[in-house]
Amino acid sequence: MSLRHSYTLIAPIYDLFINAATRQVRKNSLRALGDVQGQTILIDGIGSGLDIPFLPQGALYIGVDYTPAMLQRAIKKSVGKSVTLHVGDAMALPYPDGAFDAIIMHLILAVVPRPERALLEAARVLKPGGRILILDKFLHRGQRAPLRRLLSPLLGRAVTRTDVVFEDVLAACPQLTVVSDTPALGQGWFRHIAVEKTL
Q: Which CATH superfamily is domain 3-197 in?
């Protein structure tokens, strides 16, 4: 089963399972955007639009997702907001280099088959000095986590990977520097990470 197929199937119930569990950590992450007046910000992997209610006003937001069924749910949340939605692949973004002042990547790097490719693409479309706000589940280098590693090949084909090591993903992106890295949920399995484009 492809990711697009599985997320099409779960789109009608996605919010029921994810919204309550991630609402506060999404708010916390988005506070790091600060003053967004006049900015253009990409929501990379916008999904069903759970971030939309917490976006600060003053920016133009572009949301991209691989699954049209998830975007249909985001459309309802974007009514009256400055949000434009596109179908697209996080690993091959349909935007020019340096198009965005900031990028939001909530629960996407552990979903895509090649997270390093998705982060490289985000860095490509980010302006120098811009930041990427990441919220996701990551193993730490050297962490054993045998159950997560065992389940990841199966879960990764349908919903999400459970064995992604952020430091390994970041190693493929020399133009990005970590600005902050703090626990978010699950005793630090989920992390708030902000990276800046320095090259």
A: Vaccinia Virus protein VP39 (3.40.50.150)
> Among residues 137, 59, 144, which one has the least CA distance to residue 103?
59
Q: What is the DSSP string of 38-65?
A: T-EEEEET-TT-TTGGGPPTTSEEEEEE
Domain residues of the chain, as ranges? 3-197
Q: How far apart are the first and last CA of the chain?
A: 38
Among the residue ranges 12-16, 39-43, 84-88, 152-156, the one predicted with the least confidence is 152-156
pLDDT band, residue 147 (cuts 50/70/90): low
Predicted structure pTM score: 0.92
Can you name the residues that pair with 60 across neighbouring β-strands? 40
Residue 65 class from Cβ within 10 Å (0-12 exposed, 13-18 middle, 19+ buried)?
A: buried
Token digits of residue 33: 């955007």
CA atoms of 21 and 55, how far apart (whole Å): 18
Return the SS3 of 165: strand
Least reliable range by pLDDT among 52-56, 141-145, 148-152, 168-172: 148-152
